[in-house]
């Protein structure tokens, strides 16, 4: 037993330390998530603002093209008015207007071949085939050999007076703008920030890996599917590109088909925690091993002390003659059940029991026989209580009390009558001695806030007095539940 106690103590210490380490792990993860989501929101806002500038410029361009106010102006003035807002879009590589056949009819650049057609471009095909006027974001493409030469096409559909396809307005955006924006954000030595289209195409990633993944299709990757389904959040998973575990923090940019992803390396996030956990774990293990012997001795002494305290508590709570609860225990139990009955709205019953003609019995057969009689009656009372919430107590002298929780008048009356019959059938204490009988008074009531539990005792005592006055060896019940008669008639035997 001592070994088991020692083992339990050591396991408890280990469990506590493990809990603290796990809590610190969660706290570290939450701190990293909070910081990363702040970065996500910052990027989300910048991406939304930047694309809003491009989109509003495209919308303005369409409105001007569809307006007849420009037709009277000279071509140079028309060009200046059309592309007046183009310079507001950061890192733009030109705004373009294509007719329904895909031919370039206007642009903001200084020079451009006149023979440019875009009928095969995915964004032109998409606008030609769809009827919506939403902003379309193309796949990234390279205009030169360097990493900063990647661009996007942002485009909108033009519609004729009858709803027919009238062409496309487009803007070419350099992704170096976002690369410069992301470069100033700290995501750790092994983390990166990505922009992914809702089609699963990786638009940009910073810091760039030794292998360029821009333009790669991630639509079937489990992590991307989770980005798309949840739209905003954080989770830890294995990277499909880098094959390392990462903390992903993501958000889909409002009303734009773009997802911002901040991925942090879990090795970096938890490196300090792992070092701390190793030190604390080692120290805890050494401490447990060093304290095994001392803990064993201490637990042994504590166990002996607990046994002594329990024995003293049992003696203090029980009547030494009968083994039933004493008056102090009765008062505590009745108070507890009284308050529980108030909360639950259940009835509470109290039985008061007195041995008939006990003084005469005691005088006739002696105190020793009287003590035997009290013990036998007490045992019979205890034998008729089967629930842990019921309590039998010695109230004083030859008088007893029984508390019956969640028991109405019928149940209390039935228990009282069984006890009375059991005592009546009891064998005499001494040969040729008179048989013992008891008188019982019961009271049942529903308690309410403000009620006095002393009233329950007085009423049950009053019922006992009526039972003795009416001839003894009987049960008198007083039912104080709502709608009941104040006092029941004595039981006819």
Q: Which secondary structure elements does this structure contain, and how are they paired or packed?
A:
Elements: H1 2-66, H2 75-82, E1 92-99, E2 104-107, H3 122-129, E3 136-137, E4 141-142, E5 150-159, E6 165-174, H4 176-183, E7 192-197, E8 202-206, H5 222-230, E9 232-238, E10 245-252, E11 258-265, H6 266-269, H7 271-317, H8 327-344, E12 347-355, H9 358-365, H10 367-383, E13 391-396, E14 399-405, H11 409-424, E15 438-446, H12 453-469, E16 475-479
Parallel strand pairs: 15-16
Antiparallel strand pairs: 1-2, 1-6, 3-5, 4-5, 5-6, 7-8, 7-11, 9-10, 10-11, 12-14, 12-15, 13-14
Helix pairs in contact: 1-7, 9-10
Q: How would you describe the overall organization of this protein?
A:
- It is a single chain.
- By secondary structure, the protein is of the alpha+beta class.
- The chain folds into 2 domains: 1-315, PAS domain (Beta-Lactamase); 327-479, Reverse transcriptase/Diguanylate cyclase domain (Alpha-Beta Plaits), CATH 3.30.70.
- The protein contains 12 helices and 16 strands.
- The protein has helices spanning 2-66, 75-82, 122-129, 176-183, 222-230, 266-269, 271-317, 327-344, 358-365, 367-383, 409-424, 453-469, and strands spanning 92-99, 104-107, 136-137, 141-142, 150-159, 165-174, 192-197, 202-206, 232-238, 245-252, 258-265, 347-355, 391-396, 399-405, 438-446, 475-479.
- Strands 1, 2, 3, 4, 5 and 6 form a 6-stranded antiparallel β-sheet that branches. Strands 8-7-11-10-9 form a 5-stranded antiparallel β-sheet, sandwiched between helices. The chain has a 5-stranded mixed β-sheet with strand order 13-14-12-15-16, with helices on both faces.
- Helix 1 (2-66) crosses helix 7 (271-317) and helix 9 (358-365) packs across helix 10.
- The longest helix is centred in the N-terminal third of the chain and has 65 residues, at 2-66.
- The chain is elongated.
- The two termini are 56 Å apart.
- The mean pLDDT is 86.
């Amino acid at each position: 037993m001592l070994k088991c106690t020692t083992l339990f103590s050591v396991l408890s210490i280990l469990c506590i330390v493990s809990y603290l380490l796990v809590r610190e792990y969660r706290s570290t993860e939450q701190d990293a998530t909070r910081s990363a989501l702040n970065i996500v929101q910052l990027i989300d806002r910048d991406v939304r603002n930047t694309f809003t500038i491009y989109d509003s410029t495209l919308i303005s361009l369409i409105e001007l093209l569809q307006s007849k106010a420009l037709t009277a102006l000279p071509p140079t003035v028309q060009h200046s008015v059309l592309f007046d807002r183009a310079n507001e879009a950061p890192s733009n590589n030109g705004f373009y207007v294509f007719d329904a056949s895909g031919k370039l009819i206007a642009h903001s650049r200084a020079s451009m071949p006149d023979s440019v057609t875009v009928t095969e471009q995915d964004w032109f095909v998409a606008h030609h085939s769809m009827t919506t006027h939403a902003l379309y974001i193309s796949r990234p493409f390279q205009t030169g050999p360097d990493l900063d030469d990647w661009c996007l096409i942002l485009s909108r559909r033009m519609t004729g007076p009858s709803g027919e396809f009238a062409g496309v307005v487009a803007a070419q955006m350099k992704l170096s703008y976002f690369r410069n924006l992301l470069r100033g954000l700290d995501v750790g030595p092994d983390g990166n920030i990505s922009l992914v289209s809702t089609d699963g195409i990786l638009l940009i990633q910073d810091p760039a890996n030794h292998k360029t993944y821009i333009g790669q299709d991630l639509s079937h990757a489990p992590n991307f599917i989770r980005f798309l389904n949840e739209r905003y959040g954080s989770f830890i998973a294995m990277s499909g590109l880098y094959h390392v575990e990462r903390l992903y923090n993501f958000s889909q940019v409002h009303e734009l088909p773009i997802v911002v992803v901040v991925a942090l390396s879990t090795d970096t996030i938890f490196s300090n925690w792992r070092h701390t956990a190793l030190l604390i774990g080692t120290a805890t293990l050494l401490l447990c091993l060093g304290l095994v012997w001392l803990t064993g001795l201490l637990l042994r002494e504590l166990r002996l002390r607990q046994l002594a305290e329990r024995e003293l508590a049992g003696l203090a709570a029980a009547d030494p003659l009968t083994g039933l609860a004493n008056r102090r225990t009765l008062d505590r139990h009745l108070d507890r059940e009284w308050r529980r009955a108030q909360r639950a709205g259940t009835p509470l019953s109290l039985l008061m029991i007195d041995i008939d003609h006990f003084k005469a019995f005691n005088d006739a057969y002696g105190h020793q026989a009287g003590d035997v009689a009290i013990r036998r009656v007490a045992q019979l009372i205890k034998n008729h209580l089967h629930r842990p919430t019921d309590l039998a107590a010695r109230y004083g002298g030859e008088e007893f009390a029984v508390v019956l929780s969640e028991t109405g008048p019928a149940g209390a009356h039935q228990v009282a009558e069984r006890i009375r019959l059991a005592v009546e059938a009891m064998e005499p204490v001494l040969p040729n001695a008179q048989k013992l009988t008891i008188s019982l008074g019961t009271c049942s009531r529903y308690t309410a806030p403000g009620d006095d539990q002393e009233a329950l005792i007085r009423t049950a005592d009053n019922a006992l007095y009526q039972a003795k006055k009416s001839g003894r060896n009987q049960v008198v019940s007083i039912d104080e539940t709502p709608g009941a008669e104040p006092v029941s008639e004595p039981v006819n035997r």
